[in-house]
Amino acid sequence: MNPSMIGILANWRGGTRSTYSGPALEKPPMTNDLTSRSLGILRQLRYAALLEGCTLALLLGVAVPLKHVFDWPAAVQIIGPLHGLVFLLYCWLVITAAESEKWKRSDLARALGSALIPLGGFFAARYFRQQEKKLHTMSCEA
Q1: Which of 16, 63, 124, 133 is the most exposed place for a label (fewest CB within 10 A)?
Q2: The dihedral formed by the CA atoms of 47, 112, 96 and 138, expressed in degrees to the nearest 10
Q3: pLDDT tens digit sequence for 125-136
Q4: Residues 79-116, buried b or exposed e (16+ Cβ, 10 A)?
């Protein structure tokens, strides 16, 4: 990285190096580290919820019928553990997010409970997307 870029980055971060003498740099609309971290966590949760819902839909809609109608249990043996892994990943992400973001117990119960309801992952993903939009608009207004 050349010295002028280091000066630019130091000025933008509020550092003490001041080799950049150009016009003042505009800060991005989202300057709060906590807000950007929260948005990243919500995005991860949304993707995990979608993945959990999709693997459950595949398990119930494709693998189980293949097992019982066509007597082909290999589909359940493949998709079942895959869904279990995604389910555990989703639960782990929810618990770590709840701990780091200081969620209310009702929000934690809602997020974990949605994983127990068939296809609830899609509803959880929608909820996380709404929370993402709300947080984003709040950070842009500030």
Answers
A1: 16
A2: 60
A3: 999 999 999 988
A4: bbeebeebbeebbebbeebbeeeebeeebeebbbebbe
6, 102 Cβ separation under 8 angstroms = no
DSSP letter, residue 60 = I
- HSE toward the beta carbon, residue 31, CA cutoff 13 A: 10
Residue pLDDT, tens place only, 74-111: 999 999 999 999 999 999 999 999 999 999 999 999 99
Q: Which pLDDT score is estimated for 115?
A: 93
* Distance linking the first and last C-alpha atoms of the chain: 32
**Burial class of residue 136, CB neighbours in 10 A (0-12, 13-18, 19+):** middle
What pTM, to 2 d.p., does this model score?
0.73
